[in-house]
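Appendix B, record 7
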Amino acid sequence: MAIQSSIADTFTVGNPPDGAFRAAAGAADGPADGPADRGGVIAVEGAVDAAVGGGDGLVVAAANVARLGCSSAEYDALSDADVLAGQQTLARAQRELDTRKAWMAKTLAHRSRWELGQAGLAKKQGFLSPEALIQELTGASKVESRKLVGVGQMLAEAEAAEIQAAEAEAEAARRLRTRR
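Structure tokens (predicted):
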């Protein structure tokens, strides 16, 4: 029996889930007269509007998940189309969380790097490695903790490369304008 990684297979480097989810956020909102009309979700909608403008796909994902309902009975009452859209909504929310877990693992590993010695975060908490600390904090296996750190590092590198490419493109455009 092959074990699939829920972490390593989740990410596409250079394509964080935020952008794709913001574009599709309205598509899987659920029925207009269903669970979304409950008072608790209405309070979230203002935060969702603000978050979409600010680019936080996790807030949008959480609001869309909340619109599905908060009990098994409410999920049972969804139409077939809403169940299919709901499953996609839950998958998007999981990708948002997985991305942030990787970012946090990368940050924890950076603050625990070897050159910091006993001043590193993992060492100060009594752990030999950042992966061991992540394992303790999350309940993940050693392999999953290691993958989480690696994916976080890859995402950070891809993000830095995208920023560098955008800066180089802007500089090239500036130079072209000054030549004319």
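Remarks on this record: Residues 1-45 have pLDDT under 50 and may be disordered. The CA atoms of residues 111 and 166 lie 28 Å apart.
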